[in-house]
Amino acid sequence: MIREMTRLDFESFWPCFKSVIQAQETYAFEPNMVLEEAYRLWCELPLKTFVFVEGEQILGSYYIKPNGMGPSDHICNCGYMVDSKARGKGIARQLCEHSQRIAMELGFEAMQFNSVVSTNDVAVALWKKLGFNIIGTIPLAYRHGKLGYVDCYIMHKSLNVTIGE
Protein backbone atom coordinates (compact mmCIF):
# COMPACT_ATOMS: atom_id res chain seq x y z
CA MET A 1 0.00 0.00 0.00
CA ILE A 2 1.21 3.49 -0.85
CA ARG A 3 -0.09 6.40 1.21
CA GLU A 4 1.00 9.86 2.35
CA MET A 5 3.80 9.86 4.91
CA THR A 6 3.25 11.06 8.48
CA ARG A 7 5.83 12.31 10.97
CA LEU A 8 5.71 8.94 12.77
CA ASP A 9 6.22 7.15 9.45
CA PHE A 10 9.33 9.21 8.81
CA GLU A 11 10.70 8.42 12.24
CA SER A 12 10.21 4.71 11.47
CA PHE A 13 11.85 5.20 8.06
CA TRP A 14 14.77 7.20 9.50
CA PRO A 15 17.17 4.20 9.89
CA CYS A 16 16.76 3.43 6.17
CA PHE A 17 17.12 7.09 5.20
CA LYS A 18 20.23 7.48 7.36
CA SER A 19 21.78 4.32 5.95
CA VAL A 20 21.23 5.50 2.36
CA ILE A 21 22.74 8.94 2.86
CA GLN A 22 25.68 7.64 4.90
CA ALA A 23 26.58 5.12 2.17
CA GLN A 24 27.19 8.07 -0.19
CA GLU A 25 26.36 5.95 -3.25
CA THR A 26 23.09 7.46 -4.51
CA TYR A 27 22.04 10.70 -2.78
CA ALA A 28 23.76 14.08 -2.67
CA PHE A 29 22.57 14.70 0.88
CA GLU A 30 24.83 15.58 3.79
CA PRO A 31 25.79 12.16 5.20
CA ASN A 32 25.74 13.42 8.80
CA MET A 33 22.28 14.95 8.52
CA VAL A 34 20.17 14.61 11.66
CA LEU A 35 16.56 13.48 11.76
CA GLU A 36 15.08 17.00 11.96
CA GLU A 37 16.99 18.19 8.89
CA ALA A 38 16.08 15.03 7.00
CA TYR A 39 12.40 15.37 7.87
CA ARG A 40 12.35 18.95 6.65
CA LEU A 41 14.14 18.01 3.40
CA TRP A 42 12.07 14.88 2.66
CA CYS A 43 8.66 15.77 4.08
CA GLU A 44 8.19 19.51 4.59
CA LEU A 45 9.83 21.10 1.54
CA PRO A 46 8.21 18.87 -1.12
CA LEU A 47 4.54 19.14 -2.13
CA LYS A 48 3.82 15.61 -0.95
CA THR A 49 5.68 12.61 0.45
CA PHE A 50 4.48 9.01 0.30
CA VAL A 51 5.41 5.69 1.89
CA PHE A 52 5.19 2.10 0.71
CA VAL A 53 3.84 0.07 3.63
CA GLU A 54 3.65 -3.71 3.89
CA GLY A 55 1.99 -4.88 7.08
CA GLU A 56 3.50 -2.65 9.74
CA GLN A 57 6.77 -2.06 7.87
CA ILE A 58 7.68 1.00 5.83
CA LEU A 59 9.73 -0.37 2.96
CA GLY A 60 10.09 2.71 0.76
CA SER A 61 9.26 6.34 0.27
CA TYR A 62 9.24 9.13 -2.28
CA TYR A 63 8.66 12.85 -2.43
CA ILE A 64 7.31 15.02 -5.25
CA LYS A 65 7.94 18.71 -5.81
CA PRO A 66 8.22 21.21 -8.65
CA ASN A 67 11.61 21.04 -10.33
CA GLY A 68 11.60 24.80 -10.89
CA MET A 69 9.53 27.88 -10.16
CA GLY A 70 7.32 30.16 -12.24
CA PRO A 71 7.52 29.29 -15.93
CA SER A 72 9.22 25.97 -15.09
CA ASP A 73 6.80 24.74 -12.44
CA HIS A 74 5.08 22.35 -14.87
CA ILE A 75 7.97 19.86 -14.49
CA CYS A 76 8.25 17.92 -11.26
CA ASN A 77 11.11 16.21 -9.47
CA CYS A 78 10.95 13.15 -7.24
CA GLY A 79 13.31 11.27 -4.96
CA TYR A 80 12.89 7.61 -4.03
CA MET A 81 14.34 5.41 -1.30
CA VAL A 82 13.77 1.71 -0.69
CA ASP A 83 14.94 -0.14 2.39
CA SER A 84 17.91 -2.40 1.59
CA LYS A 85 16.02 -5.42 2.96
CA ALA A 86 13.22 -4.84 0.44
CA ARG A 87 15.20 -4.18 -2.74
CA GLY A 88 14.53 -6.33 -5.77
CA LYS A 89 10.81 -6.69 -4.97
CA GLY A 90 9.51 -4.08 -7.41
CA ILE A 91 8.90 -1.42 -4.78
CA ALA A 92 10.85 1.33 -6.57
CA ARG A 93 8.88 0.60 -9.73
CA GLN A 94 5.57 0.85 -7.85
CA LEU A 95 6.69 4.09 -6.19
CA CYS A 96 7.74 5.61 -9.52
CA GLU A 97 4.53 4.59 -11.26
CA HIS A 98 2.52 5.99 -8.34
CA SER A 99 4.51 9.23 -8.44
CA GLN A 100 3.73 9.65 -12.14
CA ARG A 101 0.00 9.29 -11.48
CA ILE A 102 0.22 11.80 -8.61
CA ALA A 103 2.26 14.16 -10.81
CA MET A 104 -0.45 14.13 -13.48
CA GLU A 105 -3.16 14.67 -10.84
CA LEU A 106 -1.18 17.69 -9.60
CA GLY A 107 -0.99 19.05 -13.16
CA PHE A 108 2.66 18.35 -13.92
CA GLU A 109 3.49 17.72 -17.58
CA ALA A 110 6.90 16.10 -17.16
CA MET A 111 9.19 14.58 -14.56
CA GLN A 112 12.91 15.23 -14.32
CA PHE A 113 15.58 13.63 -12.15
CA ASN A 114 18.42 16.12 -11.81
CA SER A 115 21.21 13.94 -10.53
CA VAL A 116 21.01 10.18 -11.01
CA VAL A 117 24.37 8.72 -10.03
CA SER A 118 25.67 6.93 -13.14
CA THR A 119 26.92 3.93 -11.16
CA ASN A 120 23.43 3.30 -9.74
CA ASP A 121 22.82 0.76 -12.51
CA VAL A 122 19.61 -0.65 -11.04
CA ALA A 123 17.94 2.77 -10.84
CA VAL A 124 19.18 3.90 -14.26
CA ALA A 125 17.86 0.71 -15.86
CA LEU A 126 14.51 0.98 -14.08
CA TRP A 127 14.01 4.63 -15.01
CA LYS A 128 14.79 3.78 -18.65
CA LYS A 129 12.26 0.90 -18.56
CA LEU A 130 9.69 3.37 -17.25
CA GLY A 131 10.27 5.72 -20.17
CA PHE A 132 12.86 8.15 -18.84
CA ASN A 133 15.64 9.30 -21.14
CA ILE A 134 19.10 10.51 -20.24
CA ILE A 135 19.14 14.08 -21.54
CA GLY A 136 22.48 15.07 -20.10
CA THR A 137 25.56 13.94 -18.24
CA ILE A 138 27.22 15.98 -15.52
CA PRO A 139 30.88 14.91 -15.50
CA LEU A 140 32.32 13.87 -12.14
CA ALA A 141 29.35 15.40 -10.31
CA TYR A 142 29.23 12.95 -7.40
CA ARG A 143 31.82 11.86 -4.84
CA HIS A 144 30.86 8.21 -4.49
CA GLY A 145 31.66 6.66 -1.10
CA LYS A 146 33.58 3.76 -2.69
CA LEU A 147 34.40 4.78 -6.28
CA GLY A 148 35.45 8.41 -5.95
CA TYR A 149 34.20 10.91 -8.52
CA VAL A 150 31.55 9.57 -10.92
CA ASP A 151 29.18 11.14 -13.45
CA CYS A 152 25.52 11.93 -12.86
CA TYR A 153 22.69 11.82 -15.36
CA ILE A 154 19.80 14.18 -15.89
CA MET A 155 16.80 12.03 -16.78
CA HIS A 156 13.45 13.26 -18.14
CA LYS A 157 10.05 11.90 -19.09
CA SER A 158 7.02 13.58 -20.59
CA LEU A 159 3.89 12.61 -18.67
CA ASN A 160 1.48 12.77 -21.59
CA VAL A 161 2.06 9.06 -22.33
CA THR A 162 0.76 5.95 -20.60
CA ILE A 163 2.64 5.10 -17.40
CA GLY A 164 4.83 2.03 -17.60
CA GLU A 165 5.35 2.12 -21.37
UniProtKB/TrEMBL annotation:
UniProt xrefs under Pfam families: Acetyltransf_1
Gene Ontology molecular function, alphabetical: acyltransferase activity, transferring groups other than amino-acyl groups
Domain N-acetyltransferase: from-to ranges: 1-160
UniProt xrefs under SUPFAM superfamilies: Acyl-CoA N-acyltransferases (Nat)
InterPro entries cross-referenced by the UniProt entry: Acyl_CoA_acyltransferase (IPR016181), GNAT_dom (IPR000182), Mito_N-acetyltransferase (IPR052742)
UniProt key word Transferase: yes
Record's keyword annotation contains Transferase: yes
Keywords noted in UniProt: Transferase
The protein, known as: Putative acetyltransferase YhhY
Organism this protein belongs to: Marinomonas spartinae
